[in-house]
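can u pls check wat happens w/ S-adenosyl-L-homocysteine
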Amino acid sequence: MNITIIGAGPGDPDLITVKGLKLLQEADVVLYADSLVSEELIERAKPESEIIKTAGMHLEEMVQVMVERASVGKKVVRVHTGDPAVYGAIMEQIALLNKRDVNVEIIPGVSSVFASAAALGAELTIPELTQTVILTRAEGRTPVPEREKLRDLAKHHCTVALFLSATLTKKIVKEFLAAGWSKETPVGVVYKATWPDQKVVRSTLENLDEDMRTYGIRKQAMILAGWALDKDIHQKDFKSKLYDKEFTHGFRKGVKQ
Ligand code: SAH
């Protein structure tokens, strides 16, 4: 038996992969949970397909539904927002499905981190400035392992992408400043990237918390921080921006290696 997990992309129904769309259109049963998966995309399933919203279901219930349908020969797909590999909580499903002899195939999707970079017109890896992107989240109610504290990650002075962190901007700013980032460091926030009500906010560490409040952004936002987000990076000699001692040091060290 097989079940397919499909990355839906960030929102715009046209941003699913060709392969993902094909499998969605062939499916007899489509499960999807997130308010971040577009209804318009789900409507592209064949009219006679069974559409199941899983928001109110717990894990075992969901797995039971998938196994029942798959065991009578139906093509079952589960659609996840963005790319399933980041904050998709897919591993717990896969573990239970495997126990019931169901194989899971994963079709990747466009993660919101890349849709947000596109909305900001940004390259996250600028030659000689930073060659690393850290995908993480600020610690809220969900704990983050001790070795991955934001303050420690930020010491790399690379581009940092923060998922699930829109309500935690005070903490983010505190941690980044403690890691030696300057207050002027650019931060790009994209609310609902690729949706019709997308908002793009260009801020700085210093203004981030206030700007989030001004624009009323409390969820469904990607926060991208670092000098790669400088909107003028393509016009300027970005090296002149590296007045931050720590940053200059990190940069030189990076070049030597
Ligand atoms: N697997 C998803 C992430 C799911 S976790 C992906 O690859 O994008 C949910 C978090 O992802 C949100 O809190 C937000 O930080 C981010 N996110 C998901 N869709 C988004 C979108 N369209 N615009 C901005 N951020 C988004």
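The chain has a mean pLDDT of 92.
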